[in-house]
């Protein structure tokens, strides 16, 4: 269960940080609305990895759709384009 508290609780930041662990974020509110989240570095790193994976998969999906429309480029043509053919 997430911990939700007003941002004014940061005056006692050590008490707030005690609530944060790998399974629990602390959500801070401002004027009754969500404003910030405190999480562990490990959780932030995992979110970054997941975001990067999502971006790669999205790029691959776009490339596959484009290849269905425009067609694939064969190996010989790529080598000619890159100047690698003999």
What share of residues are in beta strands? Answer: 15-25%
Question: Which structural class do the helices and strands define?
Answer: alpha+beta
Q: Specify the biggest β-sheet.
A: 3 strands, mixed
- Mean pLDDT figure: 91
Cα-based radius of gyration, to the nearest Å: 24 Å
Number of strands: 3
Helix amount: 40-55%
What's the helix-strand series? EHEEHH
Number of helices: 3
Give the uncertain stretches in residue-range form.
Answer: none
Strand order of the largest sheet: 1-2-3
State the shape.
Answer: elongated
C-alpha end-to-end distance: 64 Å
Please describe what this structure looks like.
There is one protein chain. With 86 residues, the protein is α+β, with helices and mostly antiparallel strands. The protein has a domain at 3-39. Helices cover 50% and strands 17% of the residues. It has helices at residues 13-18, 41-70, 75-81; strands at 3-6, 26-30, 33-38. The longest helix is centred in the middle third of the chain and has 30 residues, at 41-70.
């Amino acid at each position: 269960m997430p911990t939700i508290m007003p941002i004014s609780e940061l005056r006692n930041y050590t008490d707030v940080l005690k609530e944060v662990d790998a399974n629990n974020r602390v959500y801070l509110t401002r004027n009754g609305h969500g404003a910030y989240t405190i999480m562990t570095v490990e959780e932030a790193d995992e979110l970054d990895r997941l975001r990067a994976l999502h971006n790669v998969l999205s790029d691959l999906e776009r490339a596959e759709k484009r290849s269905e429309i425009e067609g694939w480029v064969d190996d010989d043509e790529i080598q000619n384009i890159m100047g690698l053919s003999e």
